Amino acid sequence: MSNNRSMRSMVRVLSKQKCGLRICHINAQSLLPKIDEFRDIFTDSDVDVICVTETWLRDELNDDICCLEGYRVFRFNRVNRVGGGVAIYVKRTIKCKLKLSATVDSTIEYLFVEVVGNDGNLLLGTIYRPNRYIDFSPLYTVLEEISLSSPNIVLCGDFNCNLLNTNVLTHNMQTYNLKPANTNVPTHYFGRDASLLDLMFVSDIHDVAFYDQLSAPAFSKHDLIFLTLRFSLDFSVEKITYRDFHNINIQELGDRTREINWDAMYYLPSSNDQIEFLTYNISNLFNTHVPLKTKILKPNNKPWFTVNIRNLIQQRDDAYTNWKRYRLNELRRAFCSLRNRVVAEIRKAKAKAKKTRHHQVWDSYKESLKKYKQELRIAKRSHGDPSVSQ
Fold first, then answer.
1. What angle (nearest 5°) sits at the alpha carbon of residue 225, between those of residues 220 and 231?
2. In this structure, are strands 71-76 and 86-91 parallel, antiparallel, or unpaired?
3. pLDDT digits (tens, 9 = 90+) for 317-353
4. Which of 42, 189, 337, 389 is the 20 to 30 A CA-CA neighbour of 367?
């Protein structure tokens, strides 16, 4: 990967390599403190499914706090203990439903979502095994149940099993007809050690059109892993239907309303006929002068995510790449300094944007109030109100 490109731009590069279902996984090691950069990276991207492990989210936090525009989110949160947790973000244009979730006492955390395709469905699971001492048996039990009814499966997550040192997991997964997409490139870096912990397993390796990974210094020492699967989606575009009251031609609406013989309603034989008369004419006025419009929902950009912040992010990512390559203490200090600066700049920019928005709303309110008072004064003057000064 080129060192002079930000993670945001590289995700877009990966997404355009091949056609198919674009899936990525990242170990976030606490998502909320990084949610702003997470949104900047993936909002308006071509990634269809984003799997996240170690979300560190809690049940009392609603989805709004970790939402991603243009995606629906499925979550499993660890209960009674800190850390852990998994989430799956799926584009709203994709038909899907939650199929299976871990229980509170599960030693391995997981979520399974069923994605609807034109030629059959796909079962997509996100797995988090907290440490290498936890037995895989609970996961194997789940796979034994679902593999019989779901021939097309994709698993991704942090398995905390280094495939560079052992092939036991790979061998056991073959029992459920699952093969790893990557068997020799490390995904986790700690000190001078490198290991392959972040994995993707698929039912048919020939369905993998593209696989790659890239450093994710915004989140953790784990690489982001990315896979494009040959899978034909059944799309469902999210739309809203509304009436545009802001652009009504009041003059034409008034003229058309006055043309209707409303007195005719009083001569109708029953109340039902009168209601039908009113409903027909009012609906006709609405449909003619305030017609229904349909709009496809699109994500909004965050105006406070400035060019300066993007440049700092790129510098931080480059510093991380240099540290990962040479493993020198001074390079690590440079990366940590830039990482902390990015966090501080994002926090400061958000606070400034919030303050600016508050002033804009207040100024708009004052302007509307001033205009209303002027119109009220003119109306009173036109009616000869002596209390209004000339």
1. 145
2. antiparallel
3. 888 888 888 888 898 889 889 988 988 888 888 888 8
4. 389
CA atoms within 13 A on the CB side of 55: 32
CA proximity to 225, closest of 95, 52, 91, 6: 52
Bridge partner residues of 158 (DSSP): 128, 198
**254 and 118 co-located in one domain:** no
**In the chain, helix, strand, coil percent, each to 5?**
40, 25, 35
The total of structural domains in the chain comes to 3
With tokens 């997470």, the residue in question is 38
- Integer Cα distance of 161 and 181 in angstroms: 15
Q: What is the CATH number of the domain that holds 42?
A: 3.60.10.10
Residue-level pLDDT at 186: 96
Phi, psi of 135 (to 5 degrees): -70, 140
Q: Which amino acid, one-letter code, is at 149?
A: S
Same domain, 220 and 269: no
Distance set, CA 13 to CA 7, 91, 211, 286 (Å): 10, 18, 12, 47
- Alpha-carbon distance of 120 to 88, in angstroms, equals 20
DSSP string of 325-388, one letter each residue:
HH--HHHHHHHHHHHHHHHHHHHHHHHHHHHHHHHHHHHHHHHHHHHHHHHHHHHHHHTT-TTS
User: Amino acid identity of 302?
Assistant: K
How far apart, in whole angstroms, are the C-alpha atoms of residue 104 and residue 110?
A: 11
